[in-house]
């Protein structure tokens, strides 16, 4: 199993490396609600490794699991959606074959 490093930010907060911001918030909320990963998994009728994958950002909870998650975490469904939403929008790259280019002149455009 790979070791995780604990980092301390300038503001004094601590974080584990390798864990995305959205998943850190999920883990923090779970802990603040008094659940271990095992207890949370049991309440949702999933395996503990599923909760681990959610918290590592490797998978997302299924839509049918979210109402129960919100109840367990004492959140509204909107608050849970915000908790699960990415902190940073994904960077989308255009495929290499897509490039906007101006024609050299009007004749070459219609040729």
Structural notes for this entry:
- The protein is elongated.
- Strands 1-2 form a two-stranded antiparallel ribbon.
- β1 (6-8) and β2 form a beta hairpin.
- The longest helix has 12 residues, at 21-32.
- The protein has helices spanning 21-32, 37-44, 48-56, 66-72, 77-84, 106-110, and strands spanning 6-8, 14-16.
- Helices cover 44% and strands 5% of the residues.
- The protein is mainly alpha-helical.
- It is built from six helices and two strands; from the N terminus they run ββαααααα.
Helix content: 40-55%
Low-confidence stretches: 1-11
The topology string of helices and strands comes to EEHHHHHH
Please indicate the percent range of residues in DSSP E strands (runs of 2 or more). Answer: 5-15%
Major beta sheet, specifics? Answer: 2 strands, antiparallel
Number of strands: 2
Indicate the multimeric state.
single chain
**Whole-number mean pLDDT:** 76
| Helix and strand composition category | mainly alpha
**Neighbour order of strands in the largest sheet:** 1-2
* Helix count, DSSP H or I runs of 4 or more residues: 6
Q: What is the approximate shape?
A: elongated
Rg value: 21 Å
């Amino acid at each position: 199993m790979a070791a995780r490093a604990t980092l301390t930010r300038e503001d004094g907060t601590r974080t584990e490396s390798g864990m995305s911001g959205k998943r850190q918030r999920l883990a923090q909320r779970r802990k603040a609600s008094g659940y271990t990963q095992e207890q949370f998994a049991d309440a949702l009728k999933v395996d503990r490794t599923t909760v681990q994958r959610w918290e590592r950002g490797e998978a997302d909870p299924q839509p049918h699991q979210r109402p129960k998650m919100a109840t367990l975490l004492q959140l509204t469904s909107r608050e849970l959606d915000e908790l699960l939403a990415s902190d940073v929008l994904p960077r989308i790259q255009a495929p290499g074959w897509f490039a906007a280019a101006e024609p050299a002149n009007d004749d070459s455009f219609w040729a």
